[in-house]
Amino acid sequence: MADRIIREGGTKESSRLNYGCKLAISRNPTSNERERLLSFYHRQLNEGASEKMAWTMVANVLLNLDEAITKE
User: Fold this and answer.
1) Burial annotation 13-45 (CB, 10 A radius, 16+ → b, else e)
2) What are the structural domain ranges in the chain?
């Protein structure tokens, strides 16, 4: 999913985040979600993760949201 976010999500972080949210939960993030997810993304970069790894971590968060998990 991180590859798709980087490849198809545009060049800006906010557009990539929007794209990732649409892939995972079929909607754009709220302003609070956007702020928190971009902060998490920057924290990953600051800790030494590559851009791809940072987006992988964001994708992991998105895919673990209750909205993204199908429950029976």
Assistant:
1) beebbbbbbebbbeeebeeebbeebbeebeebe
2) 2-63
